[in-house]
Design brief:
Layout: E1 4-9, E2 21-27, H1 30-46, H2 54-67, E3 75-83, E4 86-93, H3 114-121, E5 124-129, E6 135-142
Antiparallel strand pairs: 1-2, 2-3, 3-4, 4-6, 5-6
């Protein structure tokens, strides 16, 4: 089975209102989660946006979808889009019966810190219950303001 099941939109496609977005279905496996992170980094670079911390958030949400949101034969969906100066990351899986919750794991636990990372890195995040059996975990990042173009003033060269 392929790790990339179906690409919904060409990365350069704009939604009706001119919103850059990227959506892809990935297999609910560790390999699919890793591919999601790599595709997200590539897409962000193509848009001229910083990859960090967005790729860390994608990695955590995709790993959670592949681990906790996994149903045999079902994929998860990764969506990235930019509205104004906000990057929104969404990961949708088919385990709407298993909603994530922020918790502090035992100091000796080997897992359970993914949402703590998302909480620390994202400006905001939450879970949206979709049409059963889906759920979407989303996170938003404020993007840095674009650097002003050089004006040429103060140039002393002849």
């Amino acid at each position: 089975m392929s790790d990339v099941n179906q690409k919904f939109a060409d990365p350069d496609t704009q939604l009706g209102s001119g919103i850059p977005h990227f959506t892809v279905l990935l297999s609910s496996t560790p390999r699919g989660a890793r591919l999601g992170r790599l595709l997200a980094a590539d897409q962000l670079r193509s848009w001229g946006l910083p990859t960090d911390p967005a790729t860390h958030i994608v990695a955590e949400l995709a790993a959670n979808a592949a681990t906790h949101g996994r149903l045999p034969g079902r994929s998860f969906r990764l969506t990235l889009y930019v509205v104004g100066r906000t990057l929104r990351i969404e990961v949708t899986d088919t385990r709407g019966d298993r909603l994530p919750r922020l918790q502090v794991p035992d100091n000796h636990a080997e897992s359970g810190r993914g949402l703590l990372l998302v909480d620390a890195l994202a400006d905001r995040w939450d879970v949206a219950e979709g049409r059963y059996p889906r759920k979407t975990i989303w996170a938003e990042l404020a993007l840095p303001a674009p650097e002003p173009a050089p004006t040429g003033s103060g140039d002393t060269s002849d």
